[in-house]
Write a structure and sequence with these properties.
- The chain has one domain (28-287).
- Residues 3-8, 57-61 and 246-252 have low confidence and may be disordered.
- The longest helix has 30 residues, at 116-145.
- It has 13 helices and no strands.
- It is mainly alpha-helical.
- It has helices at residues 3-9, 13-25, 28-51, 66-78, 81-102, 104-111, 116-145, 161-188, 191-216, 219-226, 229-233, 242-247, 263-287.
- 74% of the residues lie in helices and 0% in strands.
- Helix 8 (161-188) runs parallel beside helix 13.
Length: 290
């Protein structure tokens, strides 16, 4: 075999990307997960728009401040994230642990001996598709609910860039949470364990700490909750407005001296979780056998 033939046969990062794309889109479970995400986002948003805002504003929208109306519109568009994030965690873990379960990971690492490009390509493909699916579902929900909300006295303003920034933040949150689960799956290398650990970090840990903070009033528990992935990342798709806070449903009273993060700080915290776990996953991926 000539040197030119070897050069043509050498696998490039583009080839690895195409391989990971084929793996992702040819699995029925993947397509079903993305379909479920879209249905949940649109369905819950439309349900809230049709029933939730009644009584908050009059037919002319005069009772509710304009910013509060925009905040409520964004809330209907992103309501499903609380549920679709669980689907994203499961899918993110399965993207990598499924290959360990079937043994395909050996073929992947045989084709890409350095391993890290395969992990990077898998994360890039999965993250891009998840972001697009999340963004399309949120924007579609915002457009559809905008036709229903005026009946309840809420008049969406399509020129408000803060709503669309919130939509981008919601899609980004779903993407980062999915990548977080993928990194955990790479570390654990087991589907059940990866899903359990991902859901535990995203869903169980905040609930436990909130219970502790609510019962004991412990500041440390509230502060620790603020730095968990779901709590910090949840700030990415909120509407930045005092009127929006006034229109939000009542919650537990704030704890004195508790840390309150800004949306951009929440993004950095969640990104830090993802980067840190991927660094650990990359180190273990190079050291352990397939």
């Amino acid at each position: 075999m000539t040197a030119r033939t070897l050069d043509r046969a050498r696998l490039t990062f583009g080839g690895v990307l195409r391989s990971e794309w084929i793996k992702l889109v040819t699995l029925r479970s993947t397509m079903w997960c993305y379909f479920i995400m879209i249905v949940i986002t649109i369905g819950l948003g439309f349900l809230l728009a049709a029933t939730g805002p009644a009584g908050f504003g009059g037919d002319d929208g005069g009772t509710m401040p304009a910013e509060a109306q925009q905040a409520l519109w964004l809330q209907t568009a992103t309501l499903g994230i609380g549920f679709t994030q669980l689907v994203t965690v499961v899918l993110g873990a399965l993207v990598i642990t499924g290959e360990y379960g079937t043994g395909m990971i050996r073929s992947t690492f045989a084709a890409v001996p350095t391993r890290l490009p395969a992990l990077a390509a898998k994360a890039l493909v999965f993250g891009t598709v998840t972001f697009l699916v999340g963004l399309v579902s949120i924007v579609a929900t915002a457009v559809l609910t905008a036709t229903v909300l005026p009946a309840s006295g809420v008049h969406p303003d399509f020129g408000d860039e803060r709503v669309w920034v919130g939509a981008l933040g919601g899609a980004g949150y779903l993407t980062l949470i999915g990548l977080l689960a993928m990194a955990i799956g790479t570390i654990i290398r087991n589907s059940a364990g990866g899903i359990a650990a991902g859901l535990g970090l995203v869903l169980v840990a905040p609930t436990v700490l909130q219970i502790i903070a609510g019962v004991t009033g412990a500041t440390w528990a509230q502060n620790l909750t603020s730095f968990l992935p779901s709590a910090a990342g949840g700030l990415m798709y909120g509407y930045p407005s005092d009127a929006a806070d006034a229109a939000a449903p009542p919650g537990p009273p704030p704890i004195d001296d508790a840390i309150v993060l800004e949306p951009w700080q929440g993004l950095l915290v969640l990104a830090g979780w993802v980067v840190g776990l991927f660094i650990l996953a990359g180190v273990l991926l190079r050291r352990r056998d397939a």
